[in-house]
Amino acid sequence: MTVILAADDFDLSEEAPAKINLALHVTGQRADGYHLLDMLVTFARHGDRLGFRASAHDEFSLSGRFSPLLAEASAGGNLVLRARDLLRQAAHDAGFEAPPVHIHLEKNLPVASGIGGGSADAAATLRGLTRLWGFPLPADTATAIALRLGADVPMCLVSRPLIARGIGEAIELLPDFPSFAMVLGNPLVSVSTPEVFRMLTRKDNPPFALPLQATNNRMQWIGTIERLRNDLEPPARALCNEIATLSQLIESQGALATRMSGSGATCFGLFDHLEQATAAAAALHSLRPDWYFQATETIKGDA
Predict the structure, then answer these.
(1) What is this protein for, i.e. what is its function (predicted)?
(2) H or E stretch at 271
């Protein structure tokens, strides 16, 4: 009989919150091809979960709605396994033991969907293994490892509301940022991130113009978010017609603001209360049971 594991079955677990780009401005491009971005980022209380425990040899297992899409990656290596290997090397270099470990990933988020699933999983792996191994990972080493794993991983390592600039490495935390009720939606259609960037008509957009004084007022922030943009949304919509339909469906449920996250195809709607978001997600699921919808709340800046 096959035993289906869950993160709670392990010695310790780590949440891997979905990363939500409330706004994303493309402000330039480096000589090496990396795009320069200004991003207003928050994190949802819904996401993947990882479990960790000591093992006689390294193991990696999967569960969750979207785990079949990662089954092949588990054999050939993915961001979780790369994070494990890089952290183990850093531990050995510092004279610490990093014995074999069984890592279990509950894949609850759609794959390659613009909400940082893989990056969040890698960041959670770094957090979980430093606890399991008792390795006091220096902040600069953590940042260096995170950047080697991907431009989104440093902000996922923080998993708190922030502004990220450059390629994502210049992070400014927003301690007063409020929590939002939110619906996440995805048509379960993949969108090529390189193709989205290739189709940009302009790569030198102005950087963010945010209020000078920090505020925790939700409605003021919603007004600010509406004045900002996701510069990747127009090309993503051109590549994937479902994004426009998805956005319209979420908006029709009374969302205060609606936008695509990252390079898509996930869109989000902000709502007054979690009860409204939950009702909206249920209605959307009835309309499109073949798509992904999830009601959640985002993490406060001082959480």
Answers:
(1) Catalyzes the phosphorylation of the position 2 hydroxy group of 4-diphosphocytidyl-2C-methyl-D-erythritol.
(2) strand 267-271
- Render pLDDT for 161-175 as a digit per residue (tens, 0 to 9): 999 999 998 999 999
The answer to whether 19 is a known catalytic residue is yes
110 annotated as belonging to a binding site for a ligand:
yes
- Homologous superfamily (CATH) of 181-297 is GHMP kinase, C-terminal domain (3.30.70.890)
Catalytic residue among 19, 48, 121, 231: 19
Give the 3-state secondary structure of 206-234. Answer: CCCCCCCCCCCCHHHHHHHHHHCCECCHH
Verify whether residue 38 is a known catalytic residue. Answer: no
What's the CATH fold of domain 7-173?
Ribosomal Protein S5; domain 2 (3.30.230)
Each domain of the chain, given as residue ranges in start order, spans 7-173, 181-297
Render pLDDT for 199-220 as a digit per residue (tens, 0 to 9): 999 999 998 888 756 677 899 9
118 is in an annotated binding site: yes
- On whether the pTM is more than 0.85, the answer is yes
